[in-house]
Design goal:
The chain contains 11 helices and 11 strands. It has helices at residues 8-21, 24-32, 58-68, 81-92, 96-105, 146-155, 177-194, 202-206, 256-264, 277-293, 318-321, and strands spanning 75-76, 106-113, 119-125, 131-137, 158-159, 165-170, 222-224, 227-228, 251-252, 299-304, 307-312. Bound molecules: zinc ion.
Length: 333
């Protein structure tokens, strides 16, 4: 997940800026005036290990997140010594290209209790205005396995109207969910820095930080940031809501098979990847790496009363697999 929500205060402020100045310069100024947007405030040293980057300037980032999500209950989680070892070990599992980029461009890592999603990547400015990043992680990913986390994520889109229906996504019971979150979020870091998609977030578009030229991975599948091209005919796409508390907007689990059958016909590798071109990129990099480099399985299974009634493995789909040719980040595997 990427930086997604802005507070009511920010919306009002931004609206005032837009209507009074009618210019993105005011917006850029507002972003630039935020202390958390500046590398200077993170004691950044590229030689530091990743565990040394945990919770640096934590109060500053915590205040930002509390305001952004209007949630004063967020708090910093201090990983134990053994969890710090796991963080370091899991970074070492990343593709070397991404690992090296994170050493250069990831300024801080924050574990936030009760964070609304499993992870988030946000951008900050270096001295020359170049892009650095911070990473926010929900500590629950240290407890859940990759399979549990992925199942939990997809299940959050469905209303449980038939209690006999059960979704299970098998990837790994061995690795903690942290592996998937690190792969997904650090793919956003690649995108922020290297611009693989036209832009990672609408904020970047307003700031004029966009890709020049074609985006080889996404151009042929997306007509706009959140809109897959019409010919893909993804009718459930607009109804997918992850981690929402608005139960009435969720899709009934009676339609679960139809939703995955739609995915099966598409070039996308997960439900979440259909929500924007940025998520398409991050999901692809993470799931491609887990299935093709770490040799983990990735099977979506639906049961009715413990009878398997549907099964689908996205990386056995040629339409999905062939997209890897367009990704330079995967060429070093
Ligand atoms: Zn994401």
């Amino acid at each position: 997940m990427i930086q997604k929500r802005i507070s009511i205060f920010s919306i009002i402020f931004i609206t005032i800026v837009i209507t009074s100045c009618d210019s993105d310069r005011g917006f850029a100024e507002q972003i630039s005036n935020m202390p958390m947007r500046h590398l200077d405030n993170y004691n950044f040293n590229r030689e530091n290990s990743f565990s040394q980057r945990l919770n640096v300037s934590g109060d500053m980032v915590l205040s930002y997140l509390q305001e952004m999500d209007s949630d004063p209950n967020y708090s910093l989680y201090d990983p134990t010594e053994s969890e710090k070892v796991i963080v370091e070990k899991y970074f070492s599992l990343l593709p070397s290209y991404i690992y090296d980029l994170c050493k250069e461009r990831l300024a801080g890592i924050y574990f936030i209790n009760d964070f609304y999603s499993s992870g988030l990547t946000d951008f900050i400015y270096g001295d020359e205005g170049d892009i650095y990043t911070i990473l926010v992680i929900n500590p629950s990913v240290l407890e859940k396995s990759v399979s549990e986390l992925f199942t939990y994520k997809d299940k959050s889109c469905f209303k449980n109207e038939n209690s006999d229906i059960r979704l299970e996504i098998d990837i790994s019971d061995f690795y903690r969910g942290l592996l998937y979150i690190l792969l997904h979020e650090t793919a956003h870091i690649v995108d922020y820095v290297e611009r693989e998609t036209p832009f990672v977030h609408m904020t970047m578009k307003r700031l004029g930080i966009v890709k020049e030229g074609k985006a080889a991975f996404t151009d042929q599948y997306w007509s706009a940031y959140r809109t897959p091209i019409d010919t893909l005919e993804l009718k459930y796409n607009d109804s997918l809501r992850f981690y929402t508390e608005e139960d009435d907007r969720l899709i009934s689990n009676r339609n679960m098979i139809s939703v995955y059958k739609e995915l099966e016909k598409s070039p996308f590798c997960s439900l979440y990847s259909t929500t924007s071109w940025a998520e398409d990129y991050a999901e692809y990099v993470s799931l491609f790496y887990m299935t093709q480099a770490l040799n983990l399985k990735y099977n979506i299974k639906i049961f009715d009363n413990d009878n398997l009634i549907y099964e689908f493995a996205p990386f056995e789909n040629e339409k999905v697999l062939k997209r890897a040719d367009k990704l330079k980040v995967l060429s070093s595997l």
